[in-house]
Amino acid sequence: MRELLKGKGIESSDLYGSLALSGHRRQLSFALSAAQKCEKYSSTHMSGELYILPESILGEFTLQENTGGGLNRLLGLKSAIPLEGYIKAQIFFDPVLHMAFFVDIPHYLDEKSILEMDRLHIRGYCLLESAARCIVEDLSVTVLTPNVRSQVRASFEVSQDGVVEQGHAITHTKIDPSAVTASAIKTELSFWGPLSSLKFENETSTADLSIAGVQVENFSLHSQGSYEESVFKVDYIFDGRIDGQPLHSKARMSWDKENCLSIDDIAFSLGKMDLQGQLKLDCVDFGINGQLSMDGFHLDELPLISANELIPKGKGHLLVTFEKADSEHKQNGHFRFNLNQLKSQGISAETVSYIFNIEDLFGTSYFSTCLMLRDVDLGEVFLEEVILEGAGNDRTMIPLRAHLRGRQSGHSFQGGARFDWSLDSHSCALQMLDLELFGETFALAEPTKIEFSKDSLLFHPLLLKGHQSSFELSGQVSAQKVDLKVTAVTLPVNVLKGCFEGLDKRLIQGEFGFQAHLFGELSSPEIELKLALSDWVVSSGGVWFSQPLSGFWNMELRANACHFHSQIEQQGSAPLTVEGVLPLSFSIRPMVFTLDKLMPWECRIRGESEAASLLKMFYGSKIPLTGQVEIEVDITVTPQDPVVTGGFLLKNGTYEILEIGSVFKGVEAQLALKDRQLQLMRLRASDGVQGNLTAEGFIRLDEEAAPLA
What we know:
mainly beta, two-stranded antiparallel sheet, disordered C terminus, 42-stranded antiparallel β-sheet, 69% strand
């Protein structure tokens, strides 16, 4: 007895109590009190009566125990309030020695495990013959926790030679913890055989189960196994449906006497996703050996994630391996993921490869990681290679390096970056960024930060500076929305050449800057753009002109309308001012400006020009007309209805007619544009010999002949 108590952590010297007996030959009453010395005083009280009958002895007892009492310690219980119960037993002497018993405990609560039992009821009997057997005919109890109410009913038989026959049913109702909810779970368990070689079988089912928000319909679990020679083995199969997709899993588990858990022949399928592998867990130092793999799966066919438009679509392979270094007791892990022909949100990539290795998981946790993407098509931007890699042992800060190279509208670029990814603050501190673009090398002006939230990225101002040019980026991008601002200055104008369809890339030279605001839905964002070209020159030989032009051009693009203001300088003439509104829009994918020919536009031209230069701009060949021309033209164009107003005024001109050898001097002419007519208001000139020349009239700009129509 002393050894039994010591095994339960109770010294016999810690116990004291009293026993009181009273009664007569056929009826005996008793009261037993016992107490245990500990930090908190605890005691057990039992009282009752014994009835000595002709063929049996009947006992009826009442049990009371306060917190941490000795009986609880002896039984392995940890009660936090008094344990009360009623026990009734009767020993029969004839014809076979046996005992019938009845136990009823109305309430029990264990605060440490938050376990509460309501009405524990046990009824059964024991046959005390040569091969003694104990049979529990009925065991029922209601178990309560804050989120689960379970009703348990069981019956079993234990014999002296260790043979056990048992079966029970458990029904859980009102299951609603934070991650798991179910309306009802039914479990049936049976086990049989000698205690040294015990076998069991279990069936569990529920029609409505939710795990971490994932709905599982018609869930069923079948398992069978054995406990033999200190080795526990079980095979399980479970089935169900998730989002209409069939769910199936099976595995073989064993737990040996060396405390190692092995899970073999793992097969898990959900829809078209198939996972295979095996694992082995050392339960002494929790080391894991094994691997899990999934081959040939398609992300767009996987349940749960295929409905998310942000999830890339492609064919992939997944391999996860675990390795325990026995000599150093270190746990290592390796994660490898490959995906081919990725497609998502208009983005495609030929291959994606991700590798993550970790050494000494439960110690210093040194890790290395590498993400590689090849042939990524972003529309106007094509990335030939993107590499992201890092290594370290800081559990809160991951140092990473990145490298990329690609091309955009015929311009190649490459760059590298170094940044620290903080797991605590969910942010990325960008320390270094170099980018070779447009023949210039850009570098990060000062360290900046990118913050990560649940579904968005927040860019603090990021400034890249080159020898002449610079970029600045700020804003936020989420899974659905975008709000980014980009500013660039002093960029070569040939960067824009790929944005204008049909533009001869040899014509225009110069520099430009812009301010862009990208906002709205991520899949189809809107853009507001301010663009300024300075010191630009258009070479001769163009479609609309025949001599070089230069000047500046400012425009603001918003709501599919381009408001522009430009100054054009011609050789030997004062500049012309051109301004107006064009129905011009800009698309992100592809990056192209588009003029809507069905929408109206307007233009205003003001300035002076030398007549010969103005005419040569449009006609190319030299026309023998000199003089200064004042220009004031307003153009409003709607589909099939151009309206041009304004006019031209020529002063002090000279016109030479070589065929007749005449030279007209003092030429003055006034032309007006009105109602599809070019009206000659007046023309005066003199050749100084034969007389003066005067004229007036109009030219009809009909729809067939009008160049502006």
